[in-house]
Amino acid sequence: MDPKYVSVIAQKLSLSIKQVVNVYELQEEGATVPFMARYRKEATGNLDEVVITSIVEEIAYFKDLEKRKETVLKTIDSQGKLTPELSAKIVACINATELEDIYLPYKPKRKTRASQAIEKGLGPLADWIWEQQSGSPEAAAQAYVKEEVKSAKDALQGARDIIAERVAEDQQARTAIRSLFETSAILVSRVLSSKKEEADAQKYRDYFEFSEPLSKCPSHRILAIRRGEKEGYLLMDINIEKAIAVPELERLFVKNNSEAAEEIRLAIADSFDRLLKPSIENEFRLTTKNAADEEAIQVFAENLRQLLLASPLGSKRVLALDPGYRTGCKLVCLDEQGNLIHSSTIYPHPPQNEWQKSVDTIKQLVKQFGIEAIGIGNGTAGRETETLARSIDFGKPVSVFQVNESGASIYSASEVAREEFPDYDVTVRGAVSIGRRLLDPLSELVKIDAKSIGVGQYQHDVNQSRLKESLDRVVESCVNHVGVDLNTASKHLLMYVSGLSATLAKNIVEYRQKNGPFKSREELKKVSLMGPKTFEQCAGFLRIREAVNPLDNSAVHPETYPVVESMAKDLNCKVKDLIEKAELRRQINRKKYISETIGEFTIEDILKELEKPGRDPRAPIEEFRFDDSIKTMEDVKVGMVVPGIVTNITKFGVFVDIGVKQDGLIHISQLSDTYVSDPAEVVKLQQKVKVTVTEVDLARKRIGLSMKTGERKMGERKMEERRGGERKTEERKKGPEPVNDFQAKLNELKKKFK
């Protein structure tokens, strides 16, 4: 890689040259980001995945820049215009925008007013005016009046067209106008008058007459305005003051007060209006869109990471319900590995209302299959079905969970689901997906297109290839962070393991089906197409429970097994003893095992893993209940303090499910008593929160929520007053409460003798 690019990357990311070079070389050798972050800490200087990814993206940027330079040099050379100075300037360029500015005058283009003027022979007149010498431009123009040029006025117009294009293609001019856009551009939007009264336009009414400095406009607002423009309701402009811009250009090109200089001034004003301003505006439309995309993608990616790393129930027998009214609740029973062992349908809700029959069915299935937990989809009839499940006395503890079913229908109709369950319809597949999400969200969600999970903002408006690339990287990161059970993982999960392709994932599953469970990581080498490099990349992220070598169920990489074996040998014990006995681990002299290839970071990771081998890094699952007093939006009142679950995090606020089939919004200003710049700093996806209802708009189906302390205290007071009023009403109905047992007996005797 060109040293100048390495230097730029290192400076931009505040890294050493060595770190950038090492990441580049590891990538060239085929190393993945998770592998570099976990098993090459000495080489990277203990960089995390985020920084390594940034280096990888910068490397890709400069590789693309090099390819573009080749095209530019070849094109200019074919025109016979490539001088040594121009070539050196292009080669030294480290910025794509700067490269395009250099290339612009040589870029093949369609017919323009300037090119037509040149064809008419007006180039020399434009050059004479450009020099701004004394003399009359009109008199000079007379010499160019001929058949194609009707008058001196036409000749001057053609010359100004040539000069206007020259100004618009000048690198200094573009830099000056670009600088003005960066510092003082205003984003303006307005509604199309013909669409103003349309119902669908109303969602954009905040932008009907809107303006804001572009530098201060948040990404979600830019994306909203662009969506309104795309749908044909809004017009969007990015403006700068012409009265400031044109004098800036005149300072670059006007040399004196000659008559020719006046022609230059006219050309500059025309160039700004017709060429330069639209060109740079388009640039900023693109750059702000890209920046807004990146921020939206980052929000989506972080939400997805949190969702994928949500707490798993673990290996337990589950009964899962996909709720519904008329079509009933599809019910499935799954074993500890998520295999389907039973499916049926119950009809507890209208119109059938088979409540008791449904209770009996669930009770019988829990007993028959040893069910330990129940998972219920949070869609239509979810709350009612949860009430049903919680009303049943199973004679033993059976946890009940509401499961976010977003994207389950996408999975159930997918090729993946048809391949897994060819003999079952989409409703059964959907219920299975709900149950498996409870067992292990990560293993199940990798089967669904990440965009369908619904945890982003404007995900359909952003660059789709960039979004997919980012989300795939997040899935890969999460899968490798958690680790994968080699003997139970589906090929869809294995595909995201470091170094494994779809073909290799399929080969691993086929090998397992033919030869039985893997007994060691070493056995992986027998899988078709599993080469040494691929084994190196994937082995540390694959786990084998109950393996002969306990390290095979840990994140310790096989390449460092000899180090652990040396530790055990030096302490006269077995590797298993090191794992089980903390006092032995405390006796290890870390420095003794540091070598040229294995440093302190690796030794530290090995010791952490020996302490808790194969430990799932995800938090344990917690049971959660919504407020039983609210089931629909009509039940929600301003001032209520209710429990909820965070379902989506955006830059402008947080969406929370409070159990009424309509998420409420905590605006960023309502998240905390102190200033919040990013909602992700305050809450996490799937977090359980207490919120105060601040607004209920039934017509627009909007619920406003707050997490501010003051709002909560006020809400709790109101709720206590409401409960107090309800208690008094009940007391009046029941009569006075007996003060003690003696008083109660006395009251009974009085009633008897009356």
Helix content: 40-55%
- Which strand-content bin applies to the residues? 5-15%
SS class? alpha/beta
How is the quaternary structure best described?
Answer: single chain
- Indicate the CATH topology of the largest domain: Tex N-terminal region-like
Q: Mean of residue pLDDT?
A: 92
Record field, number of beta strands: 15
Q: Helical segment tally?
A: 31
In angstroms, what separates the terminal alpha carbons? Answer: 104 Å
| CATH uppermost class of the largest domain | Mainly Alpha
Question: In the CATH hierarchy, what is the architecture of the largest domain at level 2?
Answer: Orthogonal Bundle
Spatial sequence of strands, sheet with the most strands: 6-5-4-7-8
Shape label: globular
Low-confidence stretches: none
Largest sheet: 5 strands, mixed
Number of domains: 4
CATH superfamily (homologous) name of the largest domain: Tex N-terminal region-like
User: Gyration radius, to the nearest Å?
Assistant: 35 Å
Pfam family, one: Tex_N
Region (Disordered): 708-741
Domain S1 motif: 639-708
Protein name: RNA-binding transcriptional accessory protein
